[in-house]
Design brief:
It is a single chain. By secondary structure, the chain is α/β, with parallel strands linked by helices. The chain has one domain: Alpha-Beta Barrel (TIM Barrel). The protein has 10 helices and 8 strands. An 8-stranded parallel barrel has the order 1-2-3-4-5-6-7-8, surrounded by 5 helices. The longest helix is centred in the last third of the chain and has 18 residues. The mean pLDDT is 95.
């Protein structure tokens, strides 16, 4: 088997239950299940039950979770609860880190909790514009990986996907060039191999991904998928990105 692709769409705080169901059904009509292609959408909590299992070719992920199994944590959702509603979970998205002040220590707890409850995590990492301009991108990435994966057994690492999302490129219309993204992805892959030799972790790029740049991004050697924001909210644009992955698989 050659390269495998994971095409993921993070809807953030958009779409009602009815809109989510309609979108998943419409998206499923746009592509055929193909070996090597995995498609995931991350609806809001409110739409997880309505979309999970709706279309077998589309997996459903949760955008967030708390690290405790149960307890007096008003407003939070546990991995035990999510296991019935989702196929995977986002951990450490920059909006959780920046807006809700989630530290690497909290991200580490969430990652371990997701693994404990067999909810494959997608770990998001990335640098700010100031860090990029100061030449500290790789230093920041290494620090995040070391802190977020601290204490995770090497045998469990293969259950994790990593999404590199430069914070300066999320929702700004700016994006890393394919070359910039490849450089960081290669560094991530080497760092992960140092931590867990022999692992086959998928590394996704996120940050203003759209049909216009997705083919070039997916063509890079160390990029095994994309985490799409705004362009995943419309069937036309998200399915166009999926088609680019299919084109590369069938090349």
């Amino acid at each position: 088997m050659g390269k495998e692709y994971l095409i993921a769409g993070n809807w953030k705080m958009f779409k009602t239950v009815a809109e989510s169901r309609e979108f998943v059904r419409a998206l499923a009509r746009e592509f055929d299940s193909t070996p090597g292609l995995e498609v995931v959408v991350f609806p809001p909590f409110t739409a997880l039950d309505a979309t999970h299992g709706l279309e077998p070719k589309i997996k459903i992920g949760s955008q967030n979770m708390y690290f405790e199994e149960k307890g007096a944590f008003t407003g939070e959702v546990s991995p035990l609860m999510l296991r019935e509603l989702a196929d995977c979970v986002l951990v450490g998205h920059s909006e959780r880190r920046e807006i809700f002040a989630e530290s690497d220590e909290v991200v580490n707890k969430k990652l371990k909790a997701a693994l404990k409850f067999e909810l494959p995590p997608v770990l998001c990492i990335g640098e700010t514009l100031a860090e990029r301009e100061a030449g500290k991108t790789l230093e920041k990435i290494r620090q995040q990986l070391e802190k977020d994966l601290q204490g995770v057994p090497a045998a469990e690492m293969g259950k994790i996907s990593v999404a590199y999302e430069p914070i300066w490129a999320i929702g700004t219309g700016r994006n890393a060039t394919a070359g910039q993204a490849q450089e960081v992805h290669h560094f991530i892959r080497q760092t992960l191999l140092d931590m867990a030799p022999g692992n086959t972790i998928k590394i996704l790029y996120g940050g203003s991904v759209k049909p216009e740049n997705s083919l070039e991004l997916l063509s890079q050697e160390d990029i095994s998928g994309v985490l799409v924001g705004g362009a995943s909210l419309k069937v036309e644009t998200f399915s166009a990105i999926i088609q680019h992955a299919l084109k590369l698989l069938n090349a």
